[in-house]
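Entry 14. Structure prediction run on the chain below.
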Amino acid sequence: MKQDKLWNANYLKVMTANFSMSFAFFLLTPLLPLYLSENFGASKDTIGLVLSGYTITALLFRPFSGYVVDSFPRKKVLLVSLFLYFLLFGGYLLAGTLVLFAIVRTLHGGPFGASTVANSTVAIDVLPSSRRNEGIGYYGLSNNLATAIAPTIGVFVYKYVHDFDVLFWLAFIVAGLGLAVDATIKMPKKQVLKDKDTISLDRFFLLKGWMIGVNMIFFGICYGVLSNYLAIYGKETMGITSGTGTYFMLLSIGLILSRLQGASALRKGKLVQNAAEGVAISTVGYTIFILYPHEIGYYGSALLIGLGNGHLWPAFQNMIISLANNNERGTANSTLLTCWDLGIGLGVLLGGVIVEFLGYSAVFWWVVAIHVIGLLMFFLYTRSFYWARKNK
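Output returned:
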């Protein structure tokens, strides 16, 4: 029996646009603290405050983005959000004061949050239903690849030109290319939400998948601590002063390998199996990170956490989408992304408190405990929650 075509033109365009969005974002991410310090003389506290505005705005916009994506033509929603996302990269070039930069950066989080929800939902729409599970798994590769190479390219470019405007222009152009590619997508007709005339929670949060979202919060907490406190922990505990880039490169390689390896299981509908493998592997990775504080444990954990998250993410995304109606896919996507962002925010906030009073080793042991709770929640509750609603 002939399979439906996975790599159709529209799907390739959506993946290309997602790569462009992610590349533009991660190109600047590692260098913005340096930019704020050198150009505006900002203190560490001020830098943290300015850069956190982006995440907060993205988190606030995601739930509403899901509803808008489900309620209006998705391509129009996608192009409007992508246009604003592209335009605000130009705002960095015009922001001549710290206050103006903070305003632009905070505003930028809104269209970023909306664009990621809209683009991933469009990806689902243009995939044949028989290849959807597999396609969602591959879709994440575009983001993983950008995460792996964009920071390295950003640092390389700055090393040779020592001009942040060049980086802002490069991000602006790459984001514009993503917008141009998405503008050529041909969308299938879809049903929009017309029967919800009153404000209700399920407009913004997929209640049918609440347990999956809550479970994802626990894993987001762990990644939030890791991504924010990795560098200083590595320096203070192991004397690794320049290994952060290598760590995230290995983590990205793990993500890419697991998505490629897990595609077959996703194609066969083995979502729970893929998720279980991911949760277990990630737990081992976080445990090794703190249990073996030397280079082998440090870099080995990156690969394992990447492998685990690469199985976990597409499986959880497919699980929550499969519980949604066709006209609720945007809400399902935004629910999962919102829970992940909320977890990361809680990880940064609570992790900072633990570090302040107990130190970095304590915070990473706490991360292991949180991940184990997430693992137990998945095997004891989330699996049966999903099966019970999937079989209805």
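DSSP finds 13 helices and no strands in the chain.
Filed with the rest of this week's runs.
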